[in-house]
Design a protein that fits this description.
heterotrimer; A mainly alpha; B alpha/beta; C alpha/beta; A: mainly alpha; Hypothetical Protein Yqey, Chain: A, domain1; B: alpha/beta
């Protein structure tokens, strides 16, 4: 229906599930009100329907900002970007950020993939920052070291 | 302090040379930490180090396997001590022991942070457990798959021992001699005289 | 022996036999960080900003920052106000914290710009009563709550389900489980979820496991939130734990991206326990953890020493430091699940005293794991309180008129939910073709205390069943469908309502819980408005009437009877 962006939310709009169910959709495009017992039993719903949509995370980020929580809001914005990344790849990316798990080049590729393939600039910036700190603190994988 | 009611065994570790790689496929290496039988003489629950070593040795010997004892000086990390010992062991099996009693059975082909058996709760390790640990290590050395030594759990070990364990850990770290290579030692057991004054 | 023991007095013998003397106490060793919160080796506060960037933090130049300093400087501290806030005399900030005339929001406007050493400098000025007074105002959610553990020494899913049900009925807003045998996790996590919803619809559940599996159970909707995401106060210990602030921040976003509530875990004593405190006090290092969590944008933190409680508990002033670390989490606007979750002392007096700084002011979760099973069944190695303490806890709430999140429930109601939880799990297991739960097990579960009271299960087939849950890709939706089609309609509805919440994201906000009517209650719509006597959360009205009830209260109308 309307393609216009939702209004800027304030703390009074929380909880969205009660105050603004009309703003909430599943990643598959169903309204939250479609998540009924009948739909579960008839098999209309899949696990994909019980995920959060990136738009919803952006709304929650607005609420976090409106409540004076900029770091929480930033976390929700990274999360919104990550909704597009498959579960296994999210875990692989997390593992790459562990100490001495990736080289500078590998972290660079990861950041590029986040920024490019997934359109996730905030996540990419976090990875680039990590790469810079890891280089300074000797936390990059050594290209020659055996993994074991 | 209370005096012991029975004469305690004493232990000195007589250095016999650099710790080398063993050739006998039927040996287990026992690798002890920097302060073992030196700065410290007993575990966190007062099991004398002499008794710890005697029991582990007895457990190994009862399986018909030989043992070599080495002392490590450049780390107090149990995984590093145990894995280092395993790499020197002819069978690839080692038992690593910290002064406070924490013990691990390791195998040279496993990743350092893995292990065959770990006994993290030092306050629960008594002489009988140390004997079983020796016996299991020997069975691994023979290529067998022994039942793991039953681990015990005591929820009140935390309030009683956690801080002392941390303190002992810090003290053992102070005994580290960076760069000093491990040595092979001969355990010399003795007894204190019965006229010890408390 | 030739030496004879010197004669001791009978009094000394009596004192020696007191349980408190089974606890361990050690001297401080500040050079190694074996000190609670007063150490000459902690840095002095300082901050300098250049070109919108923090270039000096607590006496260190940016070039010398370790990764904790870097992460905190880049993400946790409000750069615009840092110099101004850190310049405020510590005593003024400490007074703001306890002054009812200064609102929580006004305090947050200052704390957002403080460095770790400055925060330490502030709380060092406060005694334990002042810490409690400050906590009363700074707790993020107005209404306090509590969390329970439901585990089984035999990983028996039937026990986990019924004790979760009873715990939920008694008032826990969150329930946590973990395993002895990790492979049991899927069955036990399902049992916790089902039992929890039987006890009280809307209870949130979690299963503590290593990161990847914990996340997977959450993604599938078998659990509702996560908590065991550990962080540490020194770079070396953080790295020993195979993580960095960036990996953990990434993980925090991963949870949020699946709509799953999450908090980090840290606590005083972990660094010194691992031998790498870098000569800093336990509280200074914990404040670094708290600010790291803040910077990561995670909504909350479980702290209060947690599994290292034996370390601060053994040094002078250690429990004051633990109270202070809970306060610091709250005063930087994080949800605080405040410990009291590990066996702490042989002495009941000491156990109770350790609880007071959290129970009296109230925290977001007074215990981050009250054992809703007997401690012998507690797979977190025992909690500070367990099922044996339920009546004592309820009495203390009534004596002091404080809300610790629990209530007395009559036997008939307890038996009813235990029985229903066991039957619901029985039906669900049958529906999902998992190893059967017999009628004998249901009967035993209804009346049981500990895992010893249950028939033994066939562990091997349970483990096969657990594996099949993972292989078949069973999700929360399958649980809802199974419960609905086997006639447990209300339980199915409750679980579906919990799952629906992850689509809304409302539980991702700070300190969120779900009330019995499925209203998300968080620091946004339940703002802590404490402003002195007569304000803030007061135990009154219907809730107070509920807490007046105990197992035995003599009737005033007819003293020959008891009221129930």
């Amino acid at each position: 229906m309307s393609a216009q962006p939702p209004p800027e939310l304030t703390a009074a709009d929380y909880p969205l599930s009660i105050k603004h169910p009309e703003l909430l959709r599943t990643p598959t495009g169903k309204p939250i009100t479609a998540l009924t017992m009948d739909a579960v039993v008839s098999g209309e719903l899949s696990a994909e329907d019980l995920r959060i949509a990136p738009e919803t995370l952006q709304l929650q980020a607005q609420l976090a900002d409106a409540s004076g929580r900029p770091q929480l809001a930033a976390n929700f914005r990274r999360a919104a970007e990550m909704t597009a990344i498959p579960d296994t790849e999210v875990l692989a990316m997390y593992n790459a950020l562990r100490p001495r798990a990736a080289t500078a080049a590998q972290l660079g590729e990861l950041a590029d993939r986040l920024g490019g393939t997934y359109g996730a600039p905030v996540c990419a910036a976090l990875v680039r920052e990590a790469a810079e700190v890891y280089a300074r603190r000797d936390l990059l994988a050594r290209p020659t070291a055996d993994v074991g | 302090m209370t005096t012991a009611t029975t004469p305690e065994r004493t232990l000195t570790l007589r250095e016999i040379g650099p710790a080398g790689r063993g050739t006998r496929p039927d040996e287990v290496v026992i690798a002890v930490s920097p302060a073992f039988a030196g700065h410290f003489t007993k575990t966190i629950v007062d099991v004398p180090h002499a008794e710890v070593l005697r029991q582990v040795l007895a457990g190994i010997e009862e399986q018909g396997v030989t043992a070599r004892v080495i002392q490590v000086f450049d780390t107090a990390d149990l995984a590093a001590i145990s894995h280092g010992g395993a790499k020197l062991s002819g069978s690839g099996i080692a038992v690593g022991i910290l002064s406070r009693g924490t013990t691990m059975i390791h195998q040279k082909d496993l990743p350092r942070l893995s292990n065959l058996e770990l006994f993290p709760q030092s306050p629960l390790l008594d002489p009988a457990v140390f004997r079983m640990i020796g016996s299991n290590a020997a069975q691994y050395a023979k290529g067998e798959s022994p039942q793991p030594v039953p681990t015990r759990n005591d929820q009140m070990a935390r309030p009683r021992w956690q801080a002392k364990a941390a303190l002992l850990h810090l003290k053992e770290f102070e005994c580290i001699q960076a760069g000093r290579p491990a040595v092979e030692v001969e355990p010399v057991f003795g007894r204190v005289g019965s006229r010890r004054l408390g | 022996m030739t030496s004879t023991k010197p004669r001791t007095s009978t009094r000394t013998e009596v004192l020696e036999s007191r349980p408190v003397n089974l606890d361990g106490f050690v001297e401080e060793w500040p050079e190694k960080g074996l000190v609670a919160m007063e150490s000459d080796f902690d840095p002095a506060p300082s901050v300098r900003v250049e070109d919108g960037r923090i270039v000096e933090l607590d006496g260190k130049a940016r070039a010398d920052f370790d990764f904790m300093d870097t992460f905190i400087a880049n993400h946790a501290i409000d750069v615009a106000s840092a110099e101004e806030c850190t310049a405020i005399p510590s005593v003024d900030i400490a007074r703001m914290l306890i002054d009812p005339g200064v609102s929580r929001g006004q305090v947050l406007a200052v704390t957002r710009g403080l460095t770790p050493a400055k925060i330490l400098d502030v709380v060092k000025l406060m005694n334990v009563v002042e810490i409690m007074q400050a906590m009363q105002k700074m707790r993020a959610r107005r209404t306090p709550a509590n969390q329970g553990h439901s585990t089984s020494a035999r990983d028996n899913p039937v026990q986990v389900a019924v004790d979760a049900a009873e715990g939920a009925l008694r008032g826990f807003a969150e329930l946590e489980t973990t395993l002895g045998v990790v492979r049991y996790a899927p069955l036990v996590a399902i049992a916790l979820q089902v039992g929890g919803q039987v006890g009280r619809g809307g209870v949130l559940t979690q299963c503590a496991l290593e990161e990847a599996t914990e996340l997977e159970l959450g993604m599938r909707g078998i659990t509702a939130y996560a908590e065991t995401i550990s962080i540490y106060g020194t770079e070396s210990v953080f790295v020993d734990g195979d993580d960095t602030p960036w990996s953990k921040a990434f993980l925090a976003s991963a949870y949020a991206s699946r709509g799953i509530k999450m908090r980090f875990t840290s606590g005083t004593g972990s660094e010194v326990q691992m031998g790498n405190a870098e000569g800093k006090s336990m509280l200074y290092l914990e404040i670094r953890c708290i600010l790291m969590a803040k910077g990561a944008g995670v909504q909350g933190l479980q702290n209060g020493s947690i599994s290292c409680i034996g370390v601060p508990g053994a040094v002078p002033g250690g429990i004051r430091a633990v109270a202070a670390e809970n306060l610091v989490a709250s005063m930087v606007d994080l949800e605080c699940a405040s410990g009291n979750d590990q066996s702490f002392s042989h002495s009941s007096m000491r156990r109770t005293a350790r609880l007071m700084p959290q129970l009296l002011p109230g925290t977001d979760f007074v215990c981050s794991g009250y054992s809703a099973v007997p401690n012998a069944d507690n797979m977190f190695a025992g909690s500070n309180f367990d099922t044996e303490d339920y009546d004592d806890w309820n009495t203390i709430q009534r004596d002091l008129q404080v809300d610790g999140g629990l209530r007395h429930v009559r036997e008939a109601e307890v038996l009813q939910v235990r029985n229903k939880a066991a039957r619901a799990l029985q039906a669900l297991f049958a529906h999902l073709d998992l190893p059967p739960i017999t009628d004998d097990e249901v009967e035993a579960a209804t009346y049981a205390d500990s895992s010893n009271d249950y028939p033994l299960r066939d562990v091997l087939s349970d483990l096969k069943g657990a594996q099949s849950v993972m292989e078949r890709g069973i999700t929360g939706l399958d649980l809802v469908r199974g419960l609905e089609t086997t006639g447990f309609h209300d339980v199915a509805e409750s679980l579906l309502s919990v799952l629906r919440q992850r689509v809304s994201g409302d539980l991702l906000q700070t300190s969120a819980v779900l009330t019995a009517d499925f209203t998300p209650l968080s620091a946004i719509n339940d703002v802590n408005d404490y402003a002195g006597p007569g304000t803030g959360y007061r135990l009154a009205g219907e809730r107070w009437e509920e807490l007046k009830k105990l197992r035995h209260v003599t009737s005033a109308t007819n003293p020959e009877t008891e009221v129930g």
